[in-house]
Write a structure and sequence with these properties.
The complex is a heterodimer of chains A (116) and B (115). With 116 residues, chain A is mainly β. Chain A contains no helices and twelve strands. The chains are: A mainly beta (116), B mainly beta (115).
Amino acid sequence: AQKITQTQPGMFVQEKEAVTLDCTYDTSDQSYGLFWYKQPSSGEMIFLIYQGSYDEQNATEGRYSLNFQKARKSANLVISASQLGDSAMYFCAMREGPGGYQKVTFGTGTKLQVIP
Amino acid sequence: SAVISQKPSRDICQRGTSLTIQCQVDSQVTMMFWYRQQPGQSLTLIATANQGSEATYESGFVIDKFPISRPNLTFSTLTVSNMSPEDSSIYLCSVLRLETRSTQYFGPGTRLTVL
């Protein structure tokens, strides 16, 4: 079974509009973390936002917010007021595992294109 | 955050040769990982680099093909051995500090093309 599922291979959004990128996850761990990364065409992986499984509040970082619904095992990324520079691949990822044996698994990604 | 550098940033290599990629972190980190990203694909974990001991490899990756060293808490190398065109990928070093809000950071990547 897939650990991280991103069902949207590609998305379009109008500049200045908000967009939601979907992510669902599967784990039996009680303690885990969820990440979103942005990968522009240059190839670098840019950390955007993190949500811990015990965090009661949804994480926010500037224009990025993570809509964490634990019971549904979803961790959608919301980008508000989209900008042309937001066009990139976006990856959802999950950290799980005990103590010093943690590792992070990535979804297949969503390609976001912002339209002027 | 952590500042991570990788060398080389890119290389073009001949089939059958080997390439060693270096990863340097600006501060001590608990865990270091190596990922591969094949063209148009997501990231796949190759192995966890363990300080002073053998790396822990994921299914489908073996030490003979991808030997890894980690002599200290801030440095690691990944060697891609006996390369073939199928090894053409971006190879990324990543670090994770085991803290309350563990965040994983990535190096800039090494873009490898095998002819």
